[in-house]
Write a structure and sequence with these properties.
homodimer, 202 residues, alpha/beta, 10-stranded mixed β-sheet, 4 helices, 10 strands, globular
């Protein structure tokens, strides 16, 4: 009986990775937190590595690994500038993470993810969409970019459902899903919007 | 290392079921096929039961169970008229299945799923939406209901994203996701539309 991870769209990505011939190594960009999906990949035999901006969140992820007899290798870093060689890792994903920056930085980050990926390797990355209930909230700092208050002030960048297609113009299309979900959060129904991409490096 | 099931949205449903206090018994309506998600529930300790219209598909599901040392209990039946007592099972789901009927029959089936569910139990059911690329294809047999050719002629009913809300008016809302996905099928990019509901019986 295996643990269920809340980052549900990554199950599809993992299944595609499992059916790929590329080396089983994976990088998570934005890898921190108390339930790190790198653990799911580790349990499927992947050599894992993670990049995380926040020291506490990185520690939580590594602790989760330790408690499950896994070495997840979550390091402090900046996904806009990965300290990794070109074409050095089989799979890369970034789940609910890359949009915590202005779009100019999102673009840099996606370019970095693509740079470090081996040819034939798969990339999963998702974005907030303009369908999200918080799009428009807070001081606007760019095109659908807002400074919003979570535990501390953070940037959220929102994309039209096709706006990020251009980031992947040199990649092979595998899967795209535009999702509008409603759920109960702190007693109220909220609406969130995400678009998920899975692409292959040529 | 556990198998990944292709019915990805059911991972979220299973996680919610695992966090519920209701008895761990589950019914799958449309349970047949070579990769039955009932196996995932069985591996998490659920007593399973399935209803399937097609004899061959039911056998495939039970064979998968046998090969994995599980007794999945997929039986031939009609989800419009479940041979089960009221409030007799903890959880019910129907994944990519109920829309293979006219809407009058879909309604009957959902009412049956709700009838057999225990109070506090959770239901997952999803529908094709009018965003799907096949909506409008083939002879129209009702409001967004079409007779289409798969391996044999089948009915597909398509729903506006909020159209099925009324089926769940007496249930507690838990989760709803309106998904438009693009993927490669037989060499071409296709667009599919689904809306998934998770609701709780009061």
């Amino acid at each position: 009986m295996s643990k269920i991870f809340k980052q549900v769209p990554l199950y599809r990505f993992l299944d595609l990775c499992n059916n790929s011939a590329v080396e089983k190594s994976v990088l998570d960009c934005g890898a921190g937190g108390a339930q790190p999906p790198l653990s799911l990949f580790a349990s499927h035999g992947y050599k894992t590595r993670g990049i995380e901006f926040d020291v506490k969140q990185a520690a939580k992820a590594n602790d989760f690994g330790t408690n499950n007899n896994q070495q997840l290798n979550v390091e402090i870093g900046d996904m806009r500038s990965l300290k990794m060689a070109d074409a050095s890792i089989g799979f890369v994903y970034s789940y609910n993470s890359v949009f915590h920056m202005k779009k100019v930085d999102v673009k840099k980050s996606v370019e970095e993810m693509i740079r470090v990926l081996k040819p034939g390797g798969l990339l999963f990355v998702n974005f907030l969409t303009t369908n999200d209930f918080r799009c428009g909230e807070g001081p606007c700092v760019g095109p659908n970019e807002y400074e919003q208050m979570d535990d501390e002030p953070v940037i959220h960048s929102y994309y039209d459902p096709n706006e990020a297609d251009v980031y992947f113009k040199d990649m092979e299309f595998v899967y795209k899903e535009n999702r509008v979900l409603e759920r109960i959060y702190e007693g109220s129904k909220i609406r969130q919007g995400f678009v998920d991409y899975i692409v292959r490096k040529l």
